[in-house]
Amino acid sequence: MDPHYRSRLIAVVIAMIAICSAFSVSPVAGFRLENRDGNGTGATLAEALVMQESTKIEEAFLENVTVYIDSRSDKFEPYKNSSLEGFVNGVYSLEEDAIYLRSDLNPERADETLVQQVGFRVYHRKGLAKSDLLASLTPASGSYLDRICTLPGEVTGATVFANAFMLYYTSPELLESENPELYAYIDLLVETGGDAAVVDDLYRTSEPA
Record's superkingdom (predicted)? Predict the structure, then answer.
């Protein structure tokens, strides 16, 4: 096992013990995690990282969602033997309002994948597809966000938002420095919990004259 991977696994497992205690006292409302991949190294690491990261996300964004760690889920079937094979670690199912994660592919990034998929959930549930303003806030050319949004596959407004949402939680300084407009938009969304219309109005009001 890679030494860095092993040291991170040990650290997050220890953190998981502490987090489990916190969950028993103050659980995230409606949030449910089901590990269907068992107790192997990858699944254990993914579960620990998901639990750890979930404590950093606003409860309203996780309320009533179920997260499955299920590498064999049929949700990943459409990506097999395609240009996206090896890139898709998570899927948000709008019909089920559930998130599916893989632990057999980059489990050390399960925290990032969780936030990204929560971003897809927020995009759909907050009606952000209807926001012409958000659609105009495209990633700066050459920025990290721009690069991760141009991996194999179609780049959509949902993809841009979900990846920006992920960076807002995992690398906020990077997002703010490279894409300040997107950072400001998501910051308003997080602070207010409003839908697209509310956030659009607040963003326009806060823009410099």
Answer: Archaea
